[in-house]
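User: Hey, my collaborator sent me this sequence without any context and asked if I could get a structure. I don't really work with proteins. Can you help?
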Amino acid sequence: MYILIAGGGKVGTNLTRSLLREGHEVTLIEQRPYRFEKLEAEFEHQVIRGDATEIFILERAGIKRPPDLLVAATGDDEDNIIIGQIAREKYGVGNVIARINDPRNQPYFDLLGVSPTVSATGAIMGLIEHEVPEHGLIHLLELRKENLEIVELTVDENAKAKGRRVGALKLPEGARIISVVRNGSAEIPDEDTQLEAGDQVLAILEPGKEDELRRVLIKD
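Assistant: No problem. I've predicted the 3D structure and written it out in structure-token form, which is a compact way to encode the shape of the chain:
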């Protein structure tokens, strides 16, 4: 597999090192002179110096082939958006992964169709949320293209849902319960499945409807 990586910081460097170890063909782009010298000493001809937002640099790196995968991993979100757009729209790169440095910029990546994205901050926050969940709701997965997300909740002792059948619950419009875990055993619920306090429930719903779901499954 041929992989083009833009950005020779820690993320790009470690990715390059790991991918080369696995036998992939990789080209790394880095524009900072002092960083480029270190990378060139390690990767030799597999790293080129330049600004990956510039078309002639991308073409020098081999984007016309095109690569099987492009990773925009610079420390600048604007650059990562531009690189991702150029790769998809001008050169038809089918697989683009973009790094997000500031999670607040996620809507701009979504708006411009640069996806999938990876946010270290978002990933760490997800782990923190799992260990110390706020109000009992954990965000597990965002399906941005479908405008949906999967969340996990634990049925509260005082919840409206306790002792009720799934089919009788007044869930937010469009929301669905897709799994119920009880005593370590998971099942796909049907309308007759009765929820009990302590059940871990996985649900799929539109972003922004979490509070409605909390009111049903956690507390009155």
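In plain terms: Residues 77-90 form the longest helix (14 residues). You can pass these tokens on to your collaborator as they are.
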